Each structure stands twice: as structure tokens, then as C-alpha cells.
Amino acid sequence: MKDLNDLFVHLLKDVYYAERQILKALPKMAKAAGTAELKKAFESHRSETEGQIERLQQVFEMIEKPARGIKCEAIEGLVEEAKEVMEEAETPEVMDAGLLAAGQAVEHYEMARYGTLIAWAGQLNLPKAAKLLEQNLVEEKNADKLLSDIALRAVNKKAA
Amino acid sequence: MKDLNDLFVHLLKDVYYAERQILKALPKMAKAAGTAELKKAFESHRSETEGQIERLQQVFEMIEKPARGIKCEAIEGLVEEAKEVMEEAETPEVMDAGLLAAGQAVEHYEMARYGTLIAWAGQLNLPKAAKLLEQNLVEEKNADKLLSDIALRAVNKKAA
After folding, report:
1. What's the Rg (C-alpha) of chain B?
2. Of A73, A104, A111, which is closest to B116 when you measure between CB atoms?
3. Contact assignment for A81 to B73 by CB distance below 8 Å
4. Which of A104, A119, A155 is closest, CB to CB, to B123?
5. Is B108 within 8 Å of A104 when comparing Cβ atoms?
6. Would you say B108 and B137 are in contact if contact means Cβ atoms under 8 Å apart?
7. Are B104 and A116 in contact (CB under 8 A)?
8. How high is the pLDDT of residue A70?
9. pTM of model > 0.90
């Protein structure tokens, strides 16, 4: 990797791969979730993820590169952790707490990645790409916030 | 996993493993960093990480479990990405931008994990453990903020 452009393309491919892995994992997480609220959160984030993948494809077009992913070990590990939860949770309470935690770890990973991509797009003078990536970042932040709220409501409900 | 306590212990072991991997990776990242500022940031976060590991050991003591890690695929993947940067960066500029990005992805992972552990410690009525974990979370947030500031200063300096 010789310059910032190489880094940007590499990370874009990494995130593209990650989003497609997440797209495959979310329906399984929605199916496993115990409460209607969490199911709905995963399902609606699945639709959002489709839109995010389209935005990434637009960014690839802007920089005139084919939209291709490269295997990203970190997201593999994060999705693996969600699978572990689904296999090992013995009660609906443990399942939902574990899925919420796995979901938030994924959102934080994406938030870090989009933050970096937006900074690099700025440096590379790609304001339109930065804007699309910013939209994805906002959605990830909102998804993380929603999962936090669901976790908090579950705690309060149990305490009441 | 039968209850929230099982989940808490599992995630605590996961984070304990992660922090020890990070402790090993940081001196390599400091050595590879091109600017004195980034070197210093990684070095001082290495010292902080030692303190964080000690706090995790205290939490293990509080719940009367041996301080043991379990392999965490996500952090393996994140550390792998930092290694890739160190192997493939051909210029100091690319090296530092890549290391900053890798460092921030690690910080975000930890922020997500400590956020979850603190919520669970609250539910399990472990306020002292929650307080120790909160200290780690604050340090991770500050480390992430410092890396963002370094990245921003590098951009502004280049633009000037």
C-alpha cells in the first residue's frame, strides 16, 4: 500500500465485505431473538443494511473501482460470537442479552470503520463519497442507540 | 449459558483475553509508528492497558472466579488487521494512517464490550465491579479521542 488512496480502497472493500456478512447474520439474529422488540430491531436494521450496501456500491462507482469485498477477520470474529450466543443460550433472557451485546459490538466496529473512511474521503477530496459514508455512520449510531435503549428497557422492566 | 451471570463471566474472560492481546500488540505498533506523537500515544496506552488488566483481575476476585481469558475471535481479527498494516504500508504516511485506523477499531471494540459489561454488572448488583469497568471504559474513550485528534492534526498539518 503506497498511499492514502490504496488504504481507502482497502478499507472500503473490508467494510463492503462486513456489511454483506451482517446482512446474512441479521435474519438469523431476528429469528433467534425472544422479544418482538428485538426481532423488529434486527429486521429493520437488515433493510437499512441493504441501503448501506447500495451506498457503498455508489462509492465504488465514484472512485471507478469494482464493488468487491475482501475477507475481514474482525467481522468474521464478531459474527462468530453472535453464532456462539445463538448456540449456547439456554434461556430467552440470556439469548436476548447476548444478542444485544453481539449486535452492539458489530455496530461499534462499523462506527469505527465509517469514521475512518469519512476522514480519509475528506483528505482524498471525495466530498460526495464522504456524504454517503456519513449516512451509513448515522444509521449505525442510531442502531447502536436503539439496542442500548432496548437493553435498558429490559432491565427496568425486570426491576419493576 | 443459563443466566446473566454466565454471560457476564464469559464476556469478562473475553475482554481479559482481548486486553492481553492488545498489551502485546501495542509495543509493536509504537515501534512501527512514524511520528513521535503516535508512538507516545501507543506507549502510554500500553501502560494504561496494564492498569486495565489489573482492574479486570480485581473484578474476577470480586466474583470469586480465577482470572482467565478465553480466545476472542474478534480481537484476533482486529490485531491481525494491525499486523497487515505493519507489513504492507510502504510509506510512513500510510503506516500512521493505517495504525490510527486499526487502533480506533480496537478502542471501539473495547468500548462496546465495557458498555455491555457495565450494564450487566448493574443488573447483577455488582456496583464495585461496575465502577472498575467504568474506569476502563473512560480510558478507552479517551484513547479513541486522542487517536482522532492525532489523525485530525495530521490532516490539518498536511493541508497547511
Report:
1. 17
2. A104
3. yes
4. A155
5. no
6. no
7. yes
8. 94
9. yes
Mean pLDDT, range A37-41, rounded to an integer: 96
B77–A81: do the CB atoms touch at under 8 Å? no
Query: What are the CB-based long-range contacts (under 8 Å, 24+) for B146-151?
Result: B146/B41, B147/B41, B147/B100, B147/B103, B147/B104, B147/B107, B148/A115, B148/B104, B150/B35, B150/B37, B150/B38, B150/B41, B150/B100, B151/A119, B151/B97, B151/B100
Q: A4-159 falls under which CATH superfamily?
A: Ferritin, core subunit, four-helix bundle (1.20.1260.10)
Q: How far is A50 from chain B (nearest CA, A)?
A: 23
Residue ranges of A 30-69 with Cβ closer than 8 A to chain B:
none
Q: Is B109 on the interface with A (CB under 8 A)?
A: yes
Query: pLDDT tens digits, residue range B34-75?
Result: 999 999 999 999 999 999 999 999 999 999 999 999 998 899
3-state secondary structure of B140: helix
Asked whether the beta carbons of residue A98 and residue B73 sit closer than 8 angstroms, the reply is: no
Per-domain residue ranges of chain B: 4-159
